[in-house]
UniProtKB/TrEMBL annotation:
Transmembrane segments: none annotated. This is Rhamnulokinase. Residues 261-451 form the Carbohydrate kinase FGGY C-terminal domain. CDD domains: ASKHA_NBD_FGGY_RhaB-like (cd07771). The lineage of its organism: Bacteria, Bacillati, Bacillota, Bacilli, Bacillales. Gene3D superfamilies: 3.30.420.40. Residues 7-250 form the Carbohydrate kinase FGGY N-terminal domain. The keyword Transcription does not apply. It is an enzyme of class 2 (transferase). Coiled coil: none annotated. One of its GO terms (molecular function) is rhamnulokinase activity. Its EC number is 2.7.1.5. Keywords: ATP-binding, Disulfide bond, Kinase, Nucleotide-binding, Rhamnose metabolism, Transferase.
Amino acid sequence: MSTPSTVLAFDLGASSGRAIVGRLDSETGRITIEEIHRFSNDPVQVGNHLHWDILRLLHELKQGILQTKHLGYSQIESLAIDSWAVDFGLLAANGELLGNPYHYRDHQTDGIMEKVISEVGREKLYALTGLQFLQFNSIFQLYALQKNNPDLLSRADTFLMIPDLLRYFLTGEKHSEFTNATTTQLLNATSLTWETSLLSQFGLPEQIFLPPVASGTRVGSLSTAVCEELDVPSIPVIAVGEHDTASAVVAVPALDEDFAFLSCGTWSLLGTETAKPVLTEQALAWNFTNEGGVYGTNRLLKNIMGLWLIQECKRTWEKEGKTASFAELVKQAEAVQPFQFFIDPDDDMFLNPAHMPKQIQQYCRDTGQTVPQTDGEIVRCILESLALKYRFILERTEQLSGKTYRGLHIVGGGIQNELLCQFTASAIQREVWAGPVEGSALGNLVVQWIALGYIANLREARKLIRNSFPVKTYHPEDGASWQAAYTAFCDVASRSTVK
């Protein structure tokens, strides 16, 4: 390879998306990236329902492709898309989209999880799928559709997750990618095929679910219509780890064979890689999830509410005329006296409240604590609580995996919050290795290069990432105070609606 290999990654998060060009230089053994397009991802409230603006996202993908041309990247060898999980679109037999995809925070699934569990049984559903019980999982969304809008499902010809759907719009080809399919709670954790007994039990049309394809599979090229519209060549499209967490874990620059990771963004996902799903009674009791990873790996992890808590507070304060940036809010939090109040970030009351700051205050009031009053106090409460929750989940991850981890790798945009990284190191009393920031996008890029034959395997990919991007180490501080805080946090969290 005399010139660097250049590929394009689209990384879509719950609040924003980005197009990133990656270049792999065989002579230096390094990866370089350039963000060429960034855009907001704003859900739209229509009546009583919250939807994704899927056609706007398609438009932004096209703008990203155009930017590669405008910036002189004429030799894009492939492109790929990763995004959040669980949400989907339905196509009619003529290939047209049946309605706008629902947002996972839409209230259509309120109370649905409990109904499904009562019909199937919690133990059976976990044994079949190995997935954490979250009210927005695809199975519960589909159940809600079947009850509330059966005509929509009756007209459906194809079920496609969000990256699958956007790929279809670009290529005209329909494929279901494996890592995202595992987040539906409809894929059998052992056979890795759709669990037809569940589809049958809930009257879901089996024929709309396509056999999952492995990450790293070529799944078409830009269609003639898209190429003519954008005046670009027909770029090959690859199915990477299309669940953004799967891609983020690919990018963990671990030196150890066994490692713990935290993908930190709107959601926090903490866990480890295992050779096969962990389907024990204890994993069920602790509500851990088993999600498919790339190249035969399994991700044993726990979903934690994450920086959504601060994002929603900021959004609410902006409505009230306050303009503090995230950095300014963190600075305010830094000045607050530590360990005055705690929340369990995963309490159901924080999933989609009308006013997040008031909800946090109400939680503290209900649990007999001092109630945070200022914006800085609320942010400090969130950050300390997240760090302590990470310790709680890390220790359970070790018990389930039978492994002990020297420290915690953190990837994703959340590492830009250095106070949270330091709090996490102190809470777990181990080193934290933070980096890279663009975890999901890098995982997307390197799987493309593996598929194209430039990188041999996952281990080599992680070495390349570590050699190409900085990793910052945080050391634990003030162990006694953090231990006392952890005891207090666990006492408060024991009163939560979610264990």
